[in-house]
Amino acid sequence: MADSTYLVPFASSEVEMIEKKSRFIGNVFLVTSEEEALARIAEIAQRHQSATHGVYAYDIHAQNVTRFSDAGEPKGTAGMPVLDVFRKRKITNFVCVVTRYFGGILLGAGGLVRAYSQTAAMALDAAGEARMAPYTRLEILVEYPYFEKLKYLLSDFPVRESETAYDLDVTHTILIPASIRDSVEAAVSECTAGRAIVTEGETLFLPERVEKDG
Length: 214
Prior knowledge:
39% strand
């Protein structure tokens, strides 16, 4: 599967910095649609109705949509610098809003680029990064005598979720990284002497936090 993993913000964040008496507030959100991005932009605008500028940038992986706005700042000094922060770190499924309260001192084009870039970078650092990776849901139907052995086996794998239903046999449903699906299925077959019935379900993309060195 092409593009099977991609980077996104791990969490929402809000940061603030002062540059020559102008107040810059950066907000980052994880979003999965343009509609959600626009709703976040509107939410921040409502919160800061008296602000001078509400600059934003967003990128949506599934919809292949990228947008940005200088929000009244000189062209190329605000929205694009914010977007570039995320592009350089290959982050998608985000919306970043940088709100500015003008402090009375002009920053100049270079000063604006630096201020908006720095605020966006601070907000992204505060949000953290996560890698969206594919997970596969497996439904394992197994006879009762093998169930405890199966649970012990699965404890060695990075199972994200599990659910058990008891009937004539046991149905144990798990969510695992798609990359180890074949290994899990082979191990289940071996530990149950081939008596388990494994059915593959949906594939989901879930965030795995990326830890930065240092």
